[in-house]
Amino acid sequence: MNSVSIPTMEPDRQYYFMNQCKTLVLEKKAALNRPLTYNIQTFGCQMNSHDSEKLKGIMDEIGYEEVDDEAADFVIFNTCTIRENANQKLYGHLGHVKTLKNKNKDMIVCLCGCMMQEPHVIETLKQKYKFVNIIFGTHNIYKLAELIYSYLETGKQTIEVLDETKQTVEQLPRKRKYTFKSGVNIMYGCNNFCTYCIVPYVRGREQSRKKEEILAEVEALAKQGISEVMLLGQNVNSYGNIYDYKDGKIVEVDEKDRVTFPQLLTEVCKIDGIKRVRFMTSHPKDLSDELIEVMAEEPKICKHLHLPVQSGSTNILTRMNRRYTKEQYLALVDRIRAKMPNISLTTDIIVGFPGETEEDFEDTLDIIRKVKYDQAFTFIYSKRTGTPAATMDNQVPEDVIKERFNRLLTLVNEISNAQIKRFADQVKPVLVEEVNHHDASLVTGRTEENVTVHFPGTADMIGTTVDVKLTDCKGFYFMGERIG
Ligand code: SAH
Ligand code: SF4
Ligand code: F3S
Protein backbone atom coordinates (compact mmCIF):
# COMPACT_ATOMS: atom_id res chain seq x y z
CA MET A 1 0.00 0.00 0.00
CA ASN A 2 1.08 3.57 -0.59
CA SER A 3 1.87 4.84 2.90
CA VAL A 4 2.23 8.49 1.79
CA SER A 5 -1.46 8.90 1.11
CA ILE A 6 -2.75 7.22 4.28
CA PRO A 7 -4.12 9.82 6.71
CA THR A 8 -2.65 9.67 10.22
CA MET A 9 -5.50 11.50 11.93
CA GLU A 10 -8.77 9.87 12.96
CA PRO A 11 -11.47 9.48 11.88
CA ASP A 12 -10.02 10.30 8.40
CA ARG A 13 -7.74 7.32 8.59
CA GLN A 14 -10.65 4.88 9.10
CA TYR A 15 -12.69 6.50 6.31
CA TYR A 16 -9.67 5.99 4.08
CA PHE A 17 -9.58 2.27 4.95
CA MET A 18 -13.34 1.94 4.56
CA ASN A 19 -12.94 3.25 1.01
CA GLN A 20 -10.06 0.88 0.29
CA CYS A 21 -12.10 -2.08 1.57
CA LYS A 22 -15.12 -0.91 -0.40
CA THR A 23 -13.13 -1.22 -3.65
CA LEU A 24 -11.95 -4.73 -2.77
CA VAL A 25 -15.48 -5.79 -1.79
CA LEU A 26 -16.86 -4.44 -5.08
CA GLU A 27 -14.28 -6.45 -7.03
CA LYS A 28 -15.12 -9.60 -5.10
CA LYS A 29 -18.86 -9.10 -5.61
CA ALA A 30 -18.32 -8.67 -9.34
CA ALA A 31 -16.17 -11.81 -9.49
CA LEU A 32 -18.78 -13.87 -7.64
CA ASN A 33 -21.71 -12.10 -9.26
CA ARG A 34 -23.60 -11.95 -5.97
CA PRO A 35 -23.75 -9.78 -2.85
CA LEU A 36 -21.36 -10.39 0.05
CA THR A 37 -23.01 -10.93 3.44
CA TYR A 38 -22.03 -10.44 7.07
CA ASN A 39 -23.37 -11.51 10.43
CA ILE A 40 -22.47 -10.21 13.89
CA GLN A 41 -23.09 -12.34 16.97
CA THR A 42 -23.07 -10.20 20.10
CA PHE A 43 -22.57 -11.61 23.58
CA GLY A 44 -22.57 -9.83 26.93
CA CYS A 45 -23.84 -6.48 28.11
CA GLN A 46 -25.20 -3.27 26.63
CA MET A 47 -21.65 -2.00 26.09
CA ASN A 48 -21.06 -4.81 23.64
CA SER A 49 -24.43 -4.29 21.92
CA HIS A 50 -23.51 -0.66 21.52
CA ASP A 51 -20.08 -1.58 20.12
CA SER A 52 -21.76 -3.97 17.67
CA GLU A 53 -23.83 -1.11 16.27
CA LYS A 54 -20.55 0.62 15.45
CA LEU A 55 -19.13 -2.53 13.83
CA LYS A 56 -22.30 -2.88 11.73
CA GLY A 57 -22.04 0.74 10.63
CA ILE A 58 -18.55 0.06 9.29
CA MET A 59 -19.54 -3.25 7.62
CA ASP A 60 -22.47 -1.57 5.83
CA GLU A 61 -20.20 1.24 4.69
CA ILE A 62 -17.72 -1.24 3.27
CA GLY A 63 -20.46 -2.86 1.19
CA TYR A 64 -21.38 -6.06 3.01
CA GLU A 65 -25.08 -6.85 3.56
CA GLU A 66 -26.27 -7.96 6.98
CA VAL A 67 -27.92 -11.38 7.35
CA ASP A 68 -29.42 -13.17 10.34
CA ASP A 69 -27.33 -16.30 10.58
CA GLU A 70 -23.72 -17.34 10.80
CA ALA A 71 -23.61 -18.81 7.29
CA ALA A 72 -22.31 -15.51 5.91
CA ASP A 73 -19.24 -14.39 3.97
CA PHE A 74 -17.98 -12.44 6.98
CA VAL A 75 -18.88 -13.40 10.54
CA ILE A 76 -17.94 -11.37 13.61
CA PHE A 77 -18.20 -12.57 17.21
CA ASN A 78 -18.24 -9.70 19.69
CA THR A 79 -17.35 -11.66 22.80
CA CYS A 80 -17.97 -11.46 26.55
CA THR A 81 -15.97 -13.08 29.35
CA ILE A 82 -17.89 -12.06 32.45
CA ARG A 83 -18.53 -15.71 33.35
CA GLU A 84 -16.95 -18.95 32.15
CA ASN A 85 -20.12 -20.02 30.30
CA ALA A 86 -19.80 -16.90 28.10
CA ASN A 87 -16.42 -18.25 26.94
CA GLN A 88 -17.74 -21.76 26.35
CA LYS A 89 -20.51 -20.34 24.22
CA LEU A 90 -17.95 -18.81 21.85
CA TYR A 91 -16.03 -22.05 21.43
CA GLY A 92 -19.33 -23.79 20.64
CA HIS A 93 -20.04 -21.28 17.86
CA LEU A 94 -16.50 -21.59 16.51
CA GLY A 95 -16.99 -25.34 16.06
CA HIS A 96 -20.01 -24.61 13.87
CA VAL A 97 -18.23 -21.87 11.94
CA LYS A 98 -15.36 -24.23 11.12
CA THR A 99 -17.76 -26.55 9.28
CA LEU A 100 -19.28 -23.56 7.46
CA LYS A 101 -15.83 -22.43 6.43
CA ASN A 102 -15.10 -25.81 4.93
CA LYS A 103 -17.96 -25.12 2.52
CA ASN A 104 -17.14 -21.46 1.88
CA LYS A 105 -13.32 -21.20 1.76
CA ASP A 106 -13.40 -17.41 1.38
CA MET A 107 -15.44 -16.93 4.55
CA ILE A 108 -13.77 -14.42 6.89
CA VAL A 109 -14.01 -15.08 10.64
CA CYS A 110 -13.39 -12.19 13.03
CA LEU A 111 -13.33 -12.19 16.85
CA CYS A 112 -13.34 -9.10 19.03
CA GLY A 113 -14.50 -7.82 22.41
CA CYS A 114 -13.75 -8.58 26.05
CA MET A 115 -12.61 -12.19 25.76
CA MET A 116 -9.88 -11.19 23.31
CA GLN A 117 -8.24 -9.09 26.04
CA GLU A 118 -7.23 -12.28 27.87
CA PRO A 119 -3.75 -13.50 26.84
CA HIS A 120 -4.61 -17.19 27.45
CA VAL A 121 -7.53 -16.91 25.01
CA ILE A 122 -5.29 -15.48 22.30
CA GLU A 123 -2.81 -18.33 22.85
CA THR A 124 -5.58 -20.93 22.46
CA LEU A 125 -6.89 -19.24 19.33
CA LYS A 126 -3.43 -19.07 17.76
CA GLN A 127 -2.79 -22.73 18.43
CA LYS A 128 -6.16 -24.39 17.91
CA TYR A 129 -8.27 -22.02 15.84
CA LYS A 130 -6.02 -21.08 12.96
CA PHE A 131 -9.06 -20.56 10.71
CA VAL A 132 -9.90 -17.37 12.62
CA ASN A 133 -8.73 -14.52 10.40
CA ILE A 134 -9.01 -11.27 12.35
CA ILE A 135 -8.73 -10.71 16.10
CA PHE A 136 -8.90 -7.47 18.06
CA GLY A 137 -9.96 -6.39 21.55
CA THR A 138 -12.00 -3.72 23.27
CA HIS A 139 -9.61 -0.78 22.88
CA ASN A 140 -9.49 -0.56 19.09
CA ILE A 141 -12.88 -1.51 17.69
CA TYR A 142 -12.87 1.70 15.67
CA LYS A 143 -10.08 0.14 13.59
CA LEU A 144 -12.24 -2.60 12.07
CA ALA A 145 -11.83 -1.30 8.49
CA GLU A 146 -8.05 -0.93 8.86
CA LEU A 147 -7.72 -4.48 10.20
CA ILE A 148 -9.95 -5.93 7.47
CA TYR A 149 -7.88 -4.16 4.85
CA SER A 150 -4.69 -5.49 6.36
CA TYR A 151 -6.11 -9.02 6.30
CA LEU A 152 -7.38 -8.72 2.72
CA GLU A 153 -3.98 -7.45 1.57
CA THR A 154 -1.84 -10.05 3.34
CA GLY A 155 -4.19 -13.04 3.70
CA LYS A 156 -2.50 -13.64 7.07
CA GLN A 157 -4.14 -13.98 10.49
CA THR A 158 -4.35 -10.39 11.72
CA ILE A 159 -4.22 -9.83 15.48
CA GLU A 160 -4.20 -6.47 17.25
CA VAL A 161 -4.98 -6.47 20.96
CA LEU A 162 -4.00 -3.36 22.94
CA ASP A 163 -3.46 -3.17 26.72
CA GLU A 164 -5.30 0.08 27.16
CA THR A 165 -7.41 2.66 25.36
CA LYS A 166 -4.96 5.04 23.71
CA GLN A 167 -7.57 6.82 21.67
CA THR A 168 -11.36 6.82 21.31
CA VAL A 169 -12.78 7.59 17.89
CA GLU A 170 -16.49 8.38 17.92
CA GLN A 171 -17.27 9.99 14.56
CA LEU A 172 -17.74 6.79 12.62
CA PRO A 173 -20.82 5.25 11.00
CA ARG A 174 -23.26 3.46 13.28
CA LYS A 175 -26.21 1.22 12.48
CA ARG A 176 -28.81 1.48 15.20
CA LYS A 177 -31.06 -1.44 16.07
CA TYR A 178 -34.04 0.80 16.86
CA THR A 179 -35.23 4.03 15.29
CA PHE A 180 -36.71 5.42 18.51
CA LYS A 181 -34.30 4.49 21.30
CA SER A 182 -30.56 4.41 21.59
CA GLY A 183 -27.70 3.75 23.99
CA VAL A 184 -25.13 6.51 24.49
CA ASN A 185 -21.75 5.77 26.07
CA ILE A 186 -20.90 8.31 28.72
CA MET A 187 -17.85 6.51 30.05
CA TYR A 188 -15.63 3.57 29.32
CA GLY A 189 -13.84 1.06 31.55
CA CYS A 190 -14.04 0.53 35.28
CA ASN A 191 -11.78 1.33 38.26
CA ASN A 192 -13.66 -0.51 40.97
CA PHE A 193 -11.93 -3.87 40.91
CA CYS A 194 -14.65 -5.87 42.60
CA THR A 195 -12.62 -8.96 43.46
CA TYR A 196 -14.70 -11.40 41.35
CA CYS A 197 -14.92 -9.24 38.25
CA ILE A 198 -12.89 -9.32 35.04
CA VAL A 199 -14.28 -6.10 33.54
CA PRO A 200 -11.54 -3.73 34.81
CA TYR A 201 -8.93 -6.02 33.22
CA VAL A 202 -10.62 -6.34 29.84
CA ARG A 203 -12.17 -2.88 29.49
CA GLY A 204 -9.34 -0.91 31.07
CA ARG A 205 -9.33 2.19 33.23
CA GLU A 206 -12.34 4.39 33.72
CA GLN A 207 -12.61 7.29 31.31
CA SER A 208 -15.52 9.71 31.03
CA ARG A 209 -16.50 11.34 27.77
CA LYS A 210 -16.73 15.10 27.77
CA LYS A 211 -20.15 16.55 28.55
CA GLU A 212 -20.23 18.58 25.32
CA GLU A 213 -19.52 15.51 23.22
CA ILE A 214 -22.30 13.51 24.92
CA LEU A 215 -24.84 16.33 24.59
CA ALA A 216 -23.99 16.80 20.92
CA GLU A 217 -24.54 13.09 20.32
CA VAL A 218 -27.91 13.10 22.12
CA GLU A 219 -28.99 16.22 20.21
CA ALA A 220 -28.12 14.55 16.92
CA LEU A 221 -30.05 11.43 17.97
CA ALA A 222 -33.09 13.52 18.93
CA LYS A 223 -33.01 15.16 15.48
CA GLN A 224 -33.07 11.69 13.93
CA GLY A 225 -36.23 10.83 15.87
CA ILE A 226 -34.81 9.08 18.94
CA SER A 227 -37.00 9.75 21.98
CA GLU A 228 -35.44 7.43 24.60
CA VAL A 229 -31.76 7.38 25.50
CA MET A 230 -29.94 5.00 27.80
CA LEU A 231 -26.74 6.49 29.20
CA LEU A 232 -24.21 3.69 29.46
CA GLY A 233 -21.25 3.05 31.75
CA GLN A 234 -20.05 0.39 34.20
CA ASN A 235 -20.52 2.86 37.03
CA VAL A 236 -22.36 5.95 35.81
CA ASN A 237 -22.39 7.44 39.30
CA SER A 238 -18.68 8.13 39.13
CA TYR A 239 -19.07 9.96 35.80
CA GLY A 240 -16.84 13.01 35.53
CA ASN A 241 -14.00 11.87 37.77
CA ILE A 242 -11.61 11.19 34.97
CA TYR A 243 -11.75 12.81 31.62
CA ASP A 244 -9.02 12.13 29.27
CA TYR A 245 -5.78 10.61 28.28
CA LYS A 246 -2.92 13.04 27.76
CA ASP A 247 0.46 11.72 26.59
CA GLY A 248 -0.74 8.20 27.29
CA LYS A 249 -1.67 9.04 30.91
CA ILE A 250 -5.10 9.36 32.51
CA VAL A 251 -5.82 12.90 33.70
CA GLU A 252 -8.09 13.44 36.69
CA VAL A 253 -10.27 16.46 36.43
CA ASP A 254 -10.04 19.36 38.85
CA GLU A 255 -12.85 19.40 41.44
CA LYS A 256 -13.95 22.87 40.27
CA ASP A 257 -14.33 21.73 36.66
CA ARG A 258 -16.05 18.49 37.51
CA VAL A 259 -19.42 17.70 35.95
CA THR A 260 -21.33 15.24 38.14
CA PHE A 261 -23.62 12.56 36.76
CA PRO A 262 -26.79 14.30 38.04
CA GLN A 263 -25.63 17.51 36.33
CA LEU A 264 -25.12 15.63 33.10
CA LEU A 265 -28.58 14.06 33.42
CA THR A 266 -30.17 17.46 33.91
CA GLU A 267 -28.54 18.73 30.72
CA VAL A 268 -29.58 15.65 28.73
CA CYS A 269 -33.19 16.13 29.87
CA LYS A 270 -33.19 19.68 28.45
CA ILE A 271 -32.78 18.37 24.90
CA ASP A 272 -35.94 18.77 22.82
CA GLY A 273 -37.35 15.54 21.44
CA ILE A 274 -35.90 13.38 24.21
CA LYS A 275 -38.82 12.07 26.24
CA ARG A 276 -37.23 9.35 28.34
CA VAL A 277 -33.81 9.06 29.90
CA ARG A 278 -32.47 5.83 31.39
CA PHE A 279 -29.02 4.87 32.65
CA MET A 280 -27.00 1.75 33.52
CA THR A 281 -25.28 0.79 35.83
CA SER A 282 -25.35 2.50 39.20
CA HIS A 283 -22.82 1.40 41.81
CA PRO A 284 -24.45 1.83 45.25
CA LYS A 285 -21.29 3.26 46.82
CA ASP A 286 -21.34 6.29 44.50
CA LEU A 287 -25.06 7.00 44.34
CA SER A 288 -25.46 10.55 45.65
CA ASP A 289 -28.41 12.36 47.25
CA GLU A 290 -28.02 14.83 44.38
CA LEU A 291 -28.89 12.00 41.96
CA ILE A 292 -31.95 11.03 44.01
CA GLU A 293 -33.13 14.67 43.95
CA VAL A 294 -32.65 15.02 40.21
CA MET A 295 -34.37 11.70 39.50
CA ALA A 296 -37.32 12.61 41.69
CA GLU A 297 -37.78 16.04 40.13
CA GLU A 298 -37.08 15.41 36.47
CA PRO A 299 -40.11 13.79 34.79
CA LYS A 300 -38.06 12.63 31.79
CA ILE A 301 -35.89 10.36 33.95
CA CYS A 302 -37.46 6.91 34.13
CA LYS A 303 -38.30 5.81 37.65
CA HIS A 304 -36.23 2.68 37.41
CA LEU A 305 -32.93 2.07 39.09
CA HIS A 306 -30.71 -0.94 38.52
CA LEU A 307 -28.73 -1.11 41.73
CA PRO A 308 -26.66 -4.30 41.88
CA VAL A 309 -26.32 -5.51 45.47
CA GLN A 310 -24.33 -8.71 44.70
CA SER A 311 -24.72 -10.04 48.26
CA GLY A 312 -26.61 -9.19 51.45
CA SER A 313 -23.74 -10.14 53.72
CA THR A 314 -21.43 -7.34 54.86
CA ASN A 315 -18.69 -9.90 55.31
CA ILE A 316 -18.97 -11.05 51.69
CA LEU A 317 -19.44 -7.49 50.41
CA THR A 318 -16.18 -6.51 52.09
CA ARG A 319 -14.34 -9.40 50.48
CA MET A 320 -15.94 -8.52 47.15
CA ASN A 321 -14.49 -5.00 47.57
CA ARG A 322 -17.94 -3.48 47.01
CA ARG A 323 -17.28 -0.78 49.64
CA TYR A 324 -20.75 -0.69 51.24
CA THR A 325 -22.35 -2.68 54.04
CA LYS A 326 -25.75 -4.35 54.13
CA GLU A 327 -26.98 -1.53 56.38
CA GLN A 328 -25.62 1.21 54.11
CA TYR A 329 -27.33 -0.37 51.11
CA LEU A 330 -30.65 -0.62 52.95
CA ALA A 331 -30.35 3.00 54.13
CA LEU A 332 -29.72 4.05 50.53
CA VAL A 333 -32.85 2.20 49.38
CA ASP A 334 -34.81 4.00 52.12
CA ARG A 335 -33.55 7.40 50.92
CA ILE A 336 -34.49 6.52 47.33
CA ARG A 337 -37.98 5.31 48.25
CA ALA A 338 -38.60 8.30 50.53
CA LYS A 339 -38.43 10.51 47.41
CA MET A 340 -39.80 8.04 44.85
CA PRO A 341 -42.15 5.59 46.58
CA ASN A 342 -43.15 3.80 43.37
CA ILE A 343 -39.73 3.46 41.82
CA SER A 344 -38.81 0.13 40.31
CA LEU A 345 -35.61 -1.30 41.81
CA THR A 346 -33.74 -4.12 40.11
CA THR A 347 -30.50 -5.83 41.02
CA ASP A 348 -27.77 -8.38 40.32
CA ILE A 349 -26.89 -11.11 42.81
CA ILE A 350 -23.97 -13.55 42.90
CA VAL A 351 -24.33 -16.87 44.72
CA GLY A 352 -21.36 -18.88 45.92
CA PHE A 353 -18.65 -16.24 46.22
CA PRO A 354 -15.62 -17.90 47.92
CA GLY A 355 -16.21 -18.33 51.65
CA GLU A 356 -19.97 -17.71 51.45
CA THR A 357 -21.51 -19.48 54.47
CA GLU A 358 -25.13 -20.45 54.99
CA GLU A 359 -25.41 -17.42 57.27
CA ASP A 360 -24.03 -15.11 54.57
CA PHE A 361 -26.51 -16.55 52.12
CA GLU A 362 -29.38 -16.02 54.57
CA ASP A 363 -28.33 -12.36 54.66
CA THR A 364 -28.76 -12.24 50.88
CA LEU A 365 -32.26 -13.71 51.16
CA ASP A 366 -32.97 -11.21 53.93
CA ILE A 367 -31.95 -8.16 51.89
CA ILE A 368 -34.12 -9.39 48.99
CA ARG A 369 -37.12 -9.70 51.31
CA LYS A 370 -36.45 -6.22 52.69
CA VAL A 371 -35.85 -4.38 49.41
CA LYS A 372 -38.48 -6.23 47.37
CA TYR A 373 -36.92 -5.93 43.95
CA ASP A 374 -39.05 -5.74 40.82
CA GLN A 375 -36.49 -7.96 39.15
CA ALA A 376 -33.23 -9.62 40.16
CA PHE A 377 -30.64 -11.13 37.84
CA THR A 378 -29.06 -14.06 39.64
CA PHE A 379 -25.64 -15.49 38.82
CA ILE A 380 -23.62 -18.43 40.03
CA TYR A 381 -20.14 -17.21 40.96
CA SER A 382 -17.70 -17.93 38.17
CA LYS A 383 -13.97 -18.01 38.79
CA ARG A 384 -12.17 -15.57 36.48
CA THR A 385 -8.44 -16.11 36.03
CA GLY A 386 -6.44 -13.09 37.14
CA THR A 387 -9.03 -11.72 39.59
CA PRO A 388 -8.27 -11.74 43.36
CA ALA A 389 -11.27 -13.98 44.17
CA ALA A 390 -9.97 -16.74 41.88
CA THR A 391 -7.20 -17.55 44.36
CA MET A 392 -9.23 -17.07 47.55
CA ASP A 393 -9.59 -20.03 49.93
CA ASN A 394 -12.91 -21.75 50.57
CA GLN A 395 -14.33 -21.92 47.08
CA VAL A 396 -17.91 -23.11 47.71
CA PRO A 397 -18.73 -26.67 46.49
CA GLU A 398 -20.90 -26.87 43.39
CA ASP A 399 -23.77 -28.80 45.02
CA VAL A 400 -24.04 -26.23 47.82
CA ILE A 401 -24.12 -23.39 45.28
CA LYS A 402 -26.81 -25.12 43.18
CA GLU A 403 -29.01 -25.68 46.21
CA ARG A 404 -28.64 -22.02 47.28
CA PHE A 405 -29.23 -20.81 43.76
CA ASN A 406 -32.56 -22.65 43.58
CA ARG A 407 -33.70 -21.20 46.90
CA LEU A 408 -32.68 -17.76 45.72
CA LEU A 409 -34.57 -18.13 42.44
CA THR A 410 -37.75 -19.22 44.21
CA LEU A 411 -37.66 -16.18 46.50
CA VAL A 412 -36.74 -13.72 43.76
CA ASN A 413 -39.59 -14.92 41.53
CA GLU A 414 -42.09 -14.86 44.35
CA ILE A 415 -41.18 -11.26 45.21
CA SER A 416 -41.06 -9.90 41.67
CA ASN A 417 -44.42 -11.53 40.92
CA ALA A 418 -45.91 -9.80 43.92
CA GLN A 419 -44.17 -6.48 43.17
CA ILE A 420 -45.33 -6.13 39.58
CA LYS A 421 -48.97 -6.46 40.69
CA ARG A 422 -48.85 -2.97 42.21
CA PHE A 423 -49.24 -1.59 38.67
CA ALA A 424 -52.49 -3.49 38.02
CA ASP A 425 -55.31 -1.31 36.65
CA GLN A 426 -53.05 1.75 36.40
CA VAL A 427 -52.88 3.77 33.19
CA LYS A 428 -49.25 4.21 32.10
CA PRO A 429 -47.48 5.81 29.14
CA VAL A 430 -45.99 2.94 27.13
CA LEU A 431 -43.29 3.36 24.48
CA VAL A 432 -44.21 0.89 21.74
CA GLU A 433 -41.18 -1.14 20.66
CA GLU A 434 -42.34 -3.87 18.31
CA VAL A 435 -45.13 -6.02 16.95
CA ASN A 436 -45.59 -9.00 19.27
CA HIS A 437 -43.58 -12.01 18.11
CA HIS A 438 -46.33 -14.54 18.86
CA ASP A 439 -49.47 -12.60 17.99
CA ALA A 440 -49.35 -10.01 15.20
CA SER A 441 -52.53 -8.31 16.44
CA LEU A 442 -50.60 -7.14 19.51
CA VAL A 443 -47.76 -4.67 20.04
CA THR A 444 -45.21 -4.75 22.84
CA GLY A 445 -43.80 -1.84 24.78
CA ARG A 446 -42.45 -0.72 28.13
CA THR A 447 -43.49 1.58 30.92
CA GLU A 448 -40.93 3.92 32.45
CA GLU A 449 -40.47 1.31 35.21
CA ASN A 450 -39.37 -1.11 32.48
CA VAL A 451 -42.51 -3.27 32.79
CA THR A 452 -43.33 -5.07 29.53
CA VAL A 453 -46.91 -4.63 28.27
CA HIS A 454 -48.63 -6.37 25.33
CA PHE A 455 -51.80 -4.79 23.93
CA PRO A 456 -53.82 -4.64 20.70
CA GLY A 457 -52.11 -2.36 18.20
CA THR A 458 -50.45 -1.97 14.81
CA ALA A 459 -46.92 -1.59 13.44
CA ASP A 460 -47.39 2.13 12.78
CA MET A 461 -47.46 2.67 16.57
CA ILE A 462 -43.80 1.60 16.92
CA GLY A 463 -41.77 4.43 18.43
CA THR A 464 -44.79 6.31 19.76
CA THR A 465 -45.81 6.65 23.38
CA VAL A 466 -49.42 5.78 24.15
CA ASP A 467 -51.49 5.55 27.35
CA VAL A 468 -52.24 1.95 28.22
CA LYS A 469 -54.29 0.48 31.05
CA LEU A 470 -52.46 -2.48 32.60
CA THR A 471 -55.35 -4.89 32.88
CA ASP A 472 -54.05 -8.41 33.31
CA CYS A 473 -50.86 -9.38 35.16
CA LYS A 474 -49.25 -12.50 33.70
CA GLY A 475 -46.39 -13.00 36.13
CA PHE A 476 -43.57 -10.91 34.70
CA TYR A 477 -45.54 -8.83 32.22
CA PHE A 478 -48.95 -7.26 31.65
CA MET A 479 -51.64 -7.47 29.03
CA GLY A 480 -53.22 -4.08 28.51
CA GLU A 481 -55.59 -1.93 26.52
CA ARG A 482 -55.06 1.43 24.93
CA ILE A 483 -56.87 4.35 26.51
CA GLY A 484 -58.03 7.32 24.43
N1 SAH B 1 -20.72 -2.65 36.41
C1 SAH B 1 -21.85 -3.34 36.85
C2 SAH B 1 -21.83 -4.83 36.55
C3 SAH B 1 -21.33 -5.34 35.27
S1 SAH B 1 -21.22 -7.08 35.16
C4 SAH B 1 -21.94 -3.18 38.36
O1 SAH B 1 -20.96 -3.07 39.05
O2 SAH B 1 -23.02 -3.25 38.85
C5 SAH B 1 -22.90 -7.57 35.41
C6 SAH B 1 -23.09 -8.52 36.56
O3 SAH B 1 -22.42 -9.73 36.33
C7 SAH B 1 -22.55 -8.04 37.89
O4 SAH B 1 -23.39 -7.13 38.53
C8 SAH B 1 -22.40 -9.33 38.66
O5 SAH B 1 -23.57 -9.65 39.37
C9 SAH B 1 -22.18 -10.36 37.57
N2 SAH B 1 -20.81 -10.87 37.61
C10 SAH B 1 -19.67 -10.19 37.39
N3 SAH B 1 -18.60 -11.00 37.54
C11 SAH B 1 -19.08 -12.23 37.88
C12 SAH B 1 -18.48 -13.48 38.18
N4 SAH B 1 -17.16 -13.65 38.19
N5 SAH B 1 -19.29 -14.53 38.47
C13 SAH B 1 -20.63 -14.39 38.47
N6 SAH B 1 -21.25 -13.24 38.21
C14 SAH B 1 -20.49 -12.16 37.91
FE1 SF4 C 1 -17.14 -5.26 37.64
FE2 SF4 C 1 -17.38 -4.04 39.95
FE3 SF4 C 1 -16.63 -2.66 37.80
FE4 SF4 C 1 -19.12 -3.55 37.99
S1 SF4 C 1 -18.14 -2.03 39.32
S2 SF4 C 1 -17.79 -3.69 36.22
S3 SF4 C 1 -18.87 -5.49 39.04
S4 SF4 C 1 -15.47 -4.28 38.82
FE1 F3S D 1 -19.16 -9.06 29.17
FE2 F3S D 1 -17.42 -7.26 28.57
FE3 F3S D 1 -19.88 -6.53 29.13
S1 F3S D 1 -17.03 -9.02 29.82
S2 F3S D 1 -20.57 -8.10 30.52
S3 F3S D 1 -19.26 -7.75 27.42
S4 F3S D 1 -18.02 -5.38 29.60
From TrEMBL:
Quaternary structure and interacting proteins, as annotated: Monomer.
- Top EC class of this enzyme: transferase
**What's the name of the protein?**
tRNA-2-methylthio-N(6)-dimethylallyladenosine synthase
Give GO terms: molecular function aspect only: 4 iron, 4 sulfur cluster binding; metal ion binding; tRNA-2-methylthio-N(6)-dimethylallyladenosine(37) synthase activity
Q: State if tRNA processing is listed as a keyword.
A: yes
Q: Which sequence ranges are marked TM in the entry?
A: none
Query: Could you say which residues bind [4Fe-4S] cluster 2 here?
Result: 190, 194, 197
Q: Which gene encodes it?
A: miaB
| CC annotations in GO | cytosol
Q: Residues in domain TRAM? A: 421-484
Please give the superkingdom of this protein's source.
Bacteria
